[in-house]
Amino acid sequence: MMKNIIEINNAYKAYLNNKVLQGINLNIKAGEVVALIGESGSGKSTLLRCINGLENLDSGTIKFNDTDIKTINENQLRTNIGMVFQQFNLFNNMNVLKNCTIGLIKVKKLSRDKAVEIAKEKLTLVGMENFINSSVDSLSGGQKQRVAIARSLCLNPDVLLFDEPTSALDPKNVNEVLNVIANLAKANMTLIIVTHEMKFAREVANRIVYMDEGIICEQGTPAEIFDTPQNPKTKAFLKYS
Amino acid sequence: MLKNIWAILQEYSSTFVSGIGVTLALALIGTIFGLFLSLILTIIRVQVPRPNDSKIIKILKRIASGFAKFYVTVFRGTPMIVQAVIFFYSFYQMGIKWSPFAAGLFTVSLNTAAYLTEVLRGGITSIDKGQVEAARSIGMTHFQTFIYIVFPQAIKNSFASIGNEFIVNIKDTAVLSTIMVVDIFSVANKAAGKYYLYVEAMIIAALIYLAITFITSKVLILIEKKLKVETKEIVSSN
């Protein structure tokens, strides 16, 4: 049996009086693809940000490979747990290649040549090998997101988090990004994806987690959640999705 | 009037040329020194105590940021002519006999630093939060994020304002004639006093200032365009 790569125990997080996470318990196994679904404001993105260390929990623990992330150097943690953002967040002052090599050179302290080699490999993986010298401004939304994925992959993370990776894309660009994520899933990479693409979640994820008001209402296989949801809130959400 | 202008030009042309050199040197070197000083002040100014910082670091950050704020308030809140006079004569009173040019350069540099600190601070705060988060999410430290991601973008965004400050300095250095700096205005003033032709002499000064600022602004626009022309047009893969 696969071991848990992420273990979240009794996680609480609030912004002033707004309780965003209210006792989340979730284990994720290595190689698993988990889709977090739920209405906007249900705490999905905050949960991802806490896993990546961009936000700290108020109480509870998140363990990565059996180690509490509070005890791991946050910069080290982030090279092991990559994150892809809704708005891509590519570095505007760098071209595509530099976006991918900066982490390797400055964080992983690799030589420039080695960094370029890795970056080209990852850009090829996402189909962006012909754009290495392009400015990020000249890319379409889908291309930007693929570069953002390559940038995260360059650091060879054990887990990759996706925060609504297609929400900022027009329909034409959604598929090119979803295909890349689906390929990563096929390669047995551990993925946690916050998404509103129900069809995609059903096809790619091993497990669906439905969240509402900071709690996990229901989780199960795609068939269990989409075909026979038990929780009334899940039923209501899926009815309108 | 044209005859008078021509007469002044004939007598003072070489003096005007040296005045142009002084004005340009003060404005250019002062802006460069001011920019370097403002880089330091901006870094100090944007320091915010973080929850993980030790108590000492938190206090030091508050003091440093407070000092930068105070500096900006003082230099932006007082006229450069007053600053120049205070610096020039106070150093003299302390026994430091420095040239009017050195005192002028010192004043322009400090004054420019105050304005550019606010310009750069604005450039930094205008950087999208997502840029910082993306840098942090790939394991970059706060320092690396600032140096490699935030600062280059802030400088680029602020380029027009930095150029504008240079143009302002070309004109504002005229006040340094108060401490005997022999710049364009000072030469014009001298010529005007000699022949009592104030309008003619100042028209010459105005035309020189106008020509310099016009050429400078064109050059700055070219540089600005050059900075943006890194973008290569490419065919979409869609």
Judging from the principal axes of the Cα atoms, what is the shape of chain A? globular
CATH architecture of chain B: Orthogonal Bundle
Per CATH, the class of the domain at 4-89 and 159-239 in chain A reads: Alpha Beta
Name the chain pair with the biggest interface and residue counts per chain: A-B, 42 and 26 residues
Number of domains of chain B: 1
Given this structure, which CATH class of chain B is correct? Mainly Alpha
Q: Could you name the CATH homologous superfamily of chain B? A: MetI-like
The third-level CATH topology of the domain at 4-89 and 159-239 in chain A is Rossmann fold
Distance between the termini of chain A: 34 Å
Please bin the fraction of helical residues of chain B.
over 70%
How do the SSEs of chain A run, as a string of H and E? Answer: EEEHEEHEHHHEHEHEEHH
Order of helices and strands of chain B: HHHHHHHH
Structural class of chain B: mainly alpha
Quaternary structure classification: heterodimer
> Helix fraction of chain A?
25-40%
Radius of gyration based on Cα positions of chain B: 22 Å
Main sheet of chain A, how many strands, which sense, barrel? 6 strands, mixed
Structural class by helix and strand composition of chain A: alpha/beta
Largest sheet of chain B: none
Task: Note down, in words, how this protein is organized.
Chain A has 241 residues and is α/β, with parallel strands linked by helices. Chain A has a domain at 4-89 and 159-239: Rossmann fold (3-Layer(aba) Sandwich), CATH 3.40.50. Chain A has helices at residues 44-52, 74-80, 96-107, 112-125, 141-154, 171-186, 198-204, 222-227, 232-239; strands spanning 4-15, 18-29, 33-37, 59-64, 67-68, 81-84, 159-163, 190-194, 207-212, 215-220. The two termini of chain A are 34 Å apart. With 238 residues, chain B is an all-alpha fold. Chain B has a single domain, classed as MetI-like (MetI-like fold), CATH 1.10.3720. Chain B contains 8 helices and no strands. Chain B has helices at residues 2-45, 55-77, 80-93, 100-125, 129-137, 142-172, 184-195, 198-228. The radius of gyration of chain B is 22 Å and the shape is elongated. Chain B starts with a helix and ends in a 10-residue tail after the last helix. At the A-B interface, α2, α3, α5 and α6 of A face α5 and α6 of B.
